Each structure stands twice: as structure tokens, then as C-alpha cells.
Amino acid sequence: MVQYFPFPRSKHRMAAPRAPTTTPAAAADGGIEENAMAILDSSGIKDSCDLHDDRAAFLEAVRSACLAANNPSTPSWRMYDGVFQVLQNSSSLELAVASFHLLMDLGKQYPRTYLTDSDGHQSLVVVKESWLPLLIGNGSHSSEIRGNARISDHLFDPSRFSLLIEAMVEPANPTDDNNGIKAIENMMLFQYLVNTLEADFVPRHIAYKKSLDWVFFRESLLNMLLGSRKLVFKSLVKNCMYLLLNQFHPEVEDGVEGSIPSEGEAKSASDMDSSLNYLLLESERTLVSLRKLFVMVMELDLIRKEADTLGLTSRADGFRNPIMEVILDELIYNISYLSPFLLAFMEWKWKLEIILQYFSKYCGKGAVRTRRSDSSQQDLKLGSVLSFFLTTTSAKAIVKKMGTEVAQLLLAHAYQVCLYVQSDSSDSTATTEKIGASLQEISCDFISAFQNLRKVGLNIQISPFEKEALFTAATLSRKLKNEER
């Protein structure tokens, strides 16, 4: 029986948002808004217990009026902003999780960006007057029409978004309860902001595939955020990579991905004073959001490149280094980052792309000579990479440039992607094209590559991960050959 070596079971999936279920007229009910905001008004209240109870009552009032009622009312800008303020300044694990859940649920029920289907034709709808936690582009419109500049202090502009990630990089003090709760709040804020970017990105992506209209992405929240002069993109990516490298805990079950703690769990955690354990679990959920952000930026860069080719962009779109280049620069100049990054980054399509582009820095020219003159190094496929290791001479030339350990590690992770694609072909067409050969061919060439690497370096060390990859390749190769007979 074939034993595949372990690879993560989770897969990145983005759910399309639903259209609003209530009409804008429901927001005209000022009574609901005033009642909810009156509960939140803590002027004159000195007791922190009373403040906690008032905030909890406010959250429950918003949920009852906007989600649980028979005829729910669309939440007003002030109600949204009030819930967002509770998340940022709750000083309570229970309130932080409750406000986070409420914001996520409101986002699903009342999306700002969504698709409508009329007579089989999908149209993109963007409700620009809706509340946003991000203050970018037209994001300031809501606060401006209300004549209240101070209220924008609670929102996240590109600079504050970067500062939030920097704050997450700083280690939390587990002995300080307030510090631990603040760290959890920051992680939930980041998750919610990424969810907001994703909810805007997904319908635009669907609309773009049908129309190839770059304007859909030019006006996307993600593109405006990353294109802002207030944001240093390279520093942002490096900080995100640091979080991936230092918060990866392989001992935690994969099932934590995509899960959100219930409010009951949060209350129990608070009562039992187990914020440290909750902090570790929340860090795993933050990794999911980090990977989502990376994938969205990679998709955006790919679409931007396509739009450039079609002549759809202009100088007004500005210029930004692709995220892949920033990641590769960090991995090449900090070799110690490579293994933990490949373990933490489990988006298979892009993981293979990173590996191939890494190899292209050292052996891409050989592939270009055998291709059409208009081909680029990004056309390099895994089958071509393995061919460079099929003789000791060519293997020695590559190892001299990149090192034996790096070559072995990249090949083992690339083979892991092949096994995943073989086991789950639901959305692997593009990845299969990047592999460029059958699984049997890849398995045989993978074994030969390691044999030649061993001849080049007699004292090389093979990690348990790589040994398991070799064992799987040998077993699978024999099995596939027997099936052909």
C-alpha cells in the first residue's frame, strides 16, 4: 500500500458573499440606532463593570436589531463604528470575540461588494456609502458626509494597517493579562481587515474573469491599500513573512484553519484565565488570514501583469514590486527562512510557483535556450528543473550556485505539491501545467536527482522530510510501473 508523506489537508477557499437581504430604507429607522447608541454611551459611568455590561448590551442590541429580528434593519454607520470601537478597546476577551463575531456576521449579511444575476448576466455592485474599517480612496466618504473628522480616528488607513502588523510581530507577555488580550484583539482586527479585503476581492475577481476589465481591480480595496504612499510594501511583506515563520506550530491540528471560536468558548477562556492557550490558538487562525492576504496579492499581481500586457493600465496605476520578488529576495538572502516558510505556506499553486521561480534564479537560462525566443524564466516547469539534476555534471553546476541542502529541500517540497495535486484534482489545472510531466516521470526523476546530488556531495545530510519523500517516490514509482504491465 502506498504511503504518502504528510501534507496539509486544508485548502484555501473563498466563499462568495451574499447580497443584502434588507433594503436601504430599513436604515431610516433612527429609533433603533439611537437606542443602541444610547446603551453604548458611557458618559458619567466610572465603574469598569458597568462599562463592560453596557458594551455587551450594545452588541446584543445590534445583533438583535440587524440579524436576529423578523424584519432586520440595516445597521447604520454609527452602529458599525461602535462595534468596531468595542473590538479595538474592549479590554475583555469576551467582548473582543463578541464584537469580532458580530462584525463578521454583519459583513456576510450586508456585503459592500457583491454580484447580482439578471437574465443570466452577472453585474458587480459596490455600495460605496457603506461603512468600511479601512480609510483608503473613497473610504473617507462616509465620515466626511457626517461632518465628523474625529470619528475616522478609529479606522485603518494604510499606515495604521502596517503598524498593526508591526504590533503583531512584537511578542506578547503571557504574564500580563492586558497585554495578552491586546495581542488577541490585534490578531482579530487583522483577521477582520483581511476578511474585508477578501469580501471585496472575490466578486471583483469573478467579474474580471468574464470581462477582463482592469477597472474592477484598479478600484479594489486591496489595490488601493497596497498602492498608497503611506504604506511601505516591502516592509509589510517582510513583517508578514516574519509572522509566518515564527508563529507556525505544526503540532496544532489542521482543523483549526478556517474556524472561529464561539463566544461561549471565549467567555469560558476568560473565566478560566486561560488567555495564553487562547492566544496560541488565535495565532493559528491569524496564519490563515496571512496566507489569504499573500494569495490575494499574488493573484492581484498576476492580473496586473495581464492587464499590462493588454495595455489596460496607465501611469495612474503606479508601480509596485510584485510580492513574489520580495518573498524570493528574503528566502534567497536568508536561507534559514526557507524551510519554515515552505512548511507554513500551504497554498499549493503558489508554493510551487515560489519554488520554480527560486530555481529560475539559478538554472532558468538553460530552460530558456530550449524554448521559443519570447519565453521567459517564469515558463520553467518542474519537469524541466528535474532534468537539470539527471547528470552529475549539471547537478554539480547548480549545487555550486545554490547549495545541496537548498536544492534537496526545494525538490522535496515540489514533490509534495505533486502528491497533493494527484490526490485532489478539484482545482489543479494550472498547477498540473506547471508540473509539466506525469507523476510517474516526476517520481523517477526525483529519485535520480537525489542520487546525483549524493554523488556530488558524499557527506550530504538528508532530513526526515526528504527521506519520506524519497520513500514515497520509490514506492509510487514501482506501483505505477506495475499498473502499466
Automatic annotation (TrEMBL):
Any GO MF annotation of the entry: transcription cis-regulatory region binding
Protein's organism: Panicum virgatum
GO BP field: DNA damage response; negative regulation of DNA-templated transcription; negative regulation of systemic acquired resistance
Positions with biased composition (Low complexity): 16-25
InterPro entries reported for this sequence: SNI1 (IPR034561)
Region (Disordered): 1-25
Protein name: Negative regulator of systemic acquired resistance SNI1
PANTHER family named in the record: NEGATIVE REGULATOR OF SYSTEMIC ACQUIRED RESISTANCE SNI1
One CC-aspect GO term: Smc5-Smc6 complex
